[in-house]
Amino acid sequence: MHKFRALLTLLSVLMVAVVVQAQEGAAKTTIGETMRSSGRIYVVVAVMLTILIGLILYLVRLDRKISKVEKETM
Amino acid sequence: MANEKNYMYKSWWKILCVVLLLFTFIAGLLIKVPNLPALEETSRNLFFHVGMWAAMMTLFTISVVNSIKYLRTLNLKYDIYARQYATVGIVFGLLGYATGAIWMSYTWADPNNPLFESFSALAREPKLIGAAIALLIYFAYMVLRDSINDMDKRARISAVYNIFAYAMLFPAIWIMPRLLPSLHPGQEGNPALNFKDVSSTMRMVEWPAFIGWTLLGVWITTLKIRLSLLKERKMMK
Questions:
Q1: Global pTM value
Q2: Count of domains in chain A?
């Protein structure tokens, strides 16, 4: 749990710079406005994140399955 | 063997991998990049295309370390490790090659670019040839392994071959492209690793990206290793 919290802190620290940049232009932050700003790049971000998260969830599932088989064969 | 709690069963570095990759995907697309001639927005590919090569290099290094460990201990476990790390290294290498093909088509190998003469310039491109040689040597490693039936002989011969393959990586992808004229950037040094080349905001994403991709490769490899250890145990029974 401690490690998990440390990693979350790391992510938020890394994110600070991005958030600071993102706030330069955008005063209003409703989701529709965000998705339509800067050439709709956020749509691409959302698509790529969906793919990445999907692949990672698949990996996690594989990891769990292998762990289960490992326990059974012990 | 599963009761030894080594890094493969820990989860903190897997979480770190996910966090770094999420950061790479979000920040890599949203930060401001310097508007370089010919590259423009495509310089964001530094986090993805070059990340593939960084992961490949690290995986091949882990693979050769395990081969040396095998030769020192003759423990077949290390042979499985070396093999799986090399396999996933090849996958990342192929991804690096494929992404590079897309990237160059719109930058230095763009037919609209006055520096680019013709397709024959591509065929003479030392970086592409070098990377192809390196990958083919690793393909040969797989073919060599699977053509030997005796387990100990296979492990020993392929471990020695793996060391040679790793030694060939350096002239093929690091030295040769620097000696010959090339259109691919980075002939004068290490393009992505040079602190003068990469702007500081990009560096802030670059290193997390490299580490994240490498950890992803290691994660996939450990799954493959655990599967083949299971298979091995089943055969023993």
A1: 0.81
A2: 2
